[in-house]
Design goal:
2 strands, mainly alpha
């Protein structure tokens, strides 16, 4: 917190200048440098799921048990939740750029170390820190992207970036089939190369990310108006030179009292007392989508092999069309979140995917669906569910003040992932053993959670489309006089 001796009030038009920028090459650098991390997460999760069988073989060099495979997945989730909270707090305190470099570095070191695992314990430790790096990325990256992208493009860009997770999923599924082919790679080598290739992709991202600047919004609040002005001046100069036209003048200023940090107590207070309805909204959206994805999607290969007698070497291919459906949803529907609006689109995607999930469950239980048609149904369900799930990250990034943005993302991600990533898979693991009827009951649970979250959005949603972040949630550093005006 600031003190009377050190606090300084400044007046700036940086948010308005950033929001009025036309889309340019500079924005693509931001998207590529920051957004591609979701491909890494999709790659990590899919590879581990696909190579699970190989890791249980003595020839792999690890010889994990089935129970240890499940434990490794839980440890990765725990690491992601812990990393999101820890690095999320540091992101709000020390800046977006420092943390999106550090968190990627943590991921790189941990995933390279995973490739050299020599015992189950070492593998578990590496999975925890790999998850911690990815979890920290969610908070640092989402907050930075939303603060750097113009308001009128924020919805479609954010959804497309979050949806890119599924490119990593599709790539991971195909890559795993190739690397697990013992005619090409020895059983103790193929799975190690899978983690090594993830590190190579991470290094490429790190190279691009070095040119992405700190968020000017974070800088001017944290007592560095001069650096913030310089960054915006440089961006405007680049855009004017590349576009060949002048930018319109901006006369929209805000007045803030600068601070060095925001205490954790104030972060909690903001969520519970100033924005209680938004707090409920964030929890609803994250828990609904986390249960659906962690419970349903990541046990789908087991449904095919155990209940529909699909061969183990064929089942991973089903993830590719489902991943494509998940990616196309945010990509195709994203622009409507900026035009039709957040409330209508988010509630429609959540409720629509829930209704389609109920229909899929009924057809599955009646024996109408085989492996191919069930996969086709899931493509349609996840087309809408993915757009809604991606919008959950966009929502919590937009609806809380600048000073708490990264921590808000981290909190809702950790709670949603913790509940969905632990309760969901445990339930569905038991449901699969009990047969199709039990699995369908689990589908209905996921559908109810998605429909419920959609209804919460319909009543409590925030119409944030085309609005400046400062208009959606006034920064805590804005003086009370300015806030009242």
């Amino acid at each position: 917190m600031t003190t009377a001796e050190t606090a300084k009030t400044i007046r700036t038009n940086i948010p308005a200048r950033m929001d009025r920028l036309p889309w340019a090459h500079w924005h693509w650098v931001v998207v590529i440098g920051l957004g591609t991390v979701w491909i890494l997460d999709g790659l990590e999760v899919t590879i581990v799921g696909s190579i699970a069988g190989r890791l249980t073989e003595p020839e792999s060099g690890l010889g994990l048990t089935t129970a240890q495979i499940g434990l490794a997945a839980a440890i990765y989730v725990a690491g992601a939740c812990s990393g999101a909270l820890f690095f999320g707090y540091l992101t709000d305190r020390f800046g977006r750029k420092k943390l999106f470099i550090i968190t990627l570095g943590v991921y790189l070191l941990a995933t390279v170390a995973t490739a050299f695992s020599f015992s189950p314990l070492f593998f578990f430790v590496c999975r925890f820190f790999t998850g911690a790096g990815i979890g920290g990325e969610y908070a640092a990256i989402n907050s930075a992207i939303d603060e750097l992208i113009p308001a009128r493009h924020r919805g479609k860009v954010d959804l497309a970036i979050n949806g890119s997770y599924w490119l990593g999923t599709a790539f991971g599924a195909v890559l795993s089939v190739f690397l697990l082919n013992t005619a090409i790679f020895p059983p103790e080598l193929g799975w190690r190369l899978a983690f090594g290739l993830g590190a190579v992709l991470g290094l490429c991202i790190l190279f691009v990310r070095r040119s992405v600047p700190e968020s000017p919004r974070w800088l001017f609040i944290h007592r560095d108006l001069e650096s913030a002005e310089k960054i915006v001046d440089d961006v405007e100069k680049q855009i004017v030179e590349s576009e060949g036209s002048k930018l319109e003048e901006v006369d929209d200023y805000i007045e803030v009292t600068q601070r060095k940090r925001t205490g954790f107590g104030e972060i909690v207070k903001v969520g519970l007392t100033r924005y209680p309805k938004r707090f409920v909204l964030g929890l609803s959206l994250f828990i609904g989508q986390a249960f659906l994805y962690n419970a349903v999607f990541f046990t789908y290969a087991l449904v095919l092999t155990k209940l529909l007698d699909v061969p183990d070497d064929v089942a991973p291919w089903s993830l590719v069309p489902i991943a494509i459906g998940n990616f196309l949803g945010p990509l195709v529907l994203g622009r409507f979140f900026d035009t039709i609006g957040r409330r209508v689109m988010i509630s429609s995607c959540y409720i629509g995917s829930g209704v389609l999930l109920i229909g899929t469950g009924i057809l599955f239980q009646s024996g109408v669906l085989d492996a191919v048609t069930l996969t086709a149904c899931w493509m349609v369900v996840f087309f809408f569910a993915s757009a809604g799930a991606s919008a959950a990250y966009l929502t919590v990034s937009e609806i809380f003040p600048m000073e708490t943005r990264a921590m808000a993302i981290a909190f809702f991600y950790a709670v949603g992932t913790g509940i969905g990533g632990i309760i969901g898979p445990i339930l569905f693991g038991q449901f699969i053993e009990d047969g199709i009827g039990a699995v369908v009951f689990g589908y209905f649970i996921g559908a109810v959670l998605m429909i419920g979250a959609g209804l919460v959005e319909a009543f409590l949603g925030v119409d944030a489309e085309n609005k400046s972040l400062e208009d959606i949630a006034t920064p805590l550093s804005v003086s009370s006089e300015t806030r009242e005006q």
